[in-house]
């Protein structure tokens, strides 16, 4: 599969490594708004994000991946381009351990040394970062970022747009609402509603649309 990475920052470097280790994929270009014009050289495709359709005209077998860690930005780019989901690649690092019963959406990237166990579901355009554990029967929505070494135990539900900080632990049966941020190292023992920031052990809400900020 020939891949064009959208975005050329730090996160795209990790995606580059995943592709480089694979025998199934080949990077043939980058789209990033640091490029003013679309071009094809011996280094491959280069151009602004809006040039995705020109890239398709050049090679109709291209697949894309959005190499940007920020959930909101990833979603905005996907909606701006209006490309069908089928044109986005699902990338899995060769060291990941994934149950055959897991379902993974389009555009999602599974990083090195992750473990995803039976009957988990990972949505579209999500990131499961290095060393994370996604236990059985988890439901993870679209445009989610699970940061390195997070542990989501059984039957956890993560709604779309959630960012889970590095080293977070979420106990069984918990739900985290849409677009919420869980701070690094938190232990989540109760359901967290949408559009919140929660930190600490156990995790407490410090900011939300309905709760006044009480600290950092």
TrEMBL record:
InterPro entries: AcTrfase_PglD-like (IPR020019), GMPPB_C (IPR056729), Hexapep_transf_CS (IPR018357), PglD_N (IPR041561), Trans_hexapeptide_repeat (IPR050179), Trimer_LpxA-like_sf (IPR011004)
Name by which UniProt lists this protein: Acetyltransferase
Domain Mannose-1-phosphate guanyltransferase C-terminal: 92-177
Highest taxon in the source lineage: Bacteria
Bilayer-spanning residue ranges: none
Native organism: Metabacillus endolithicus
PANTHER family assigned: ACETYLTRANSFERASE, UDP-N-ACETYLBACILLOSAMINE N-ACETYLTRANSFERASE
Residue ranges occupied by any PglD N-terminal domain in the UniProt entry: 2-81
Keywords on record: Repeat, Transferase
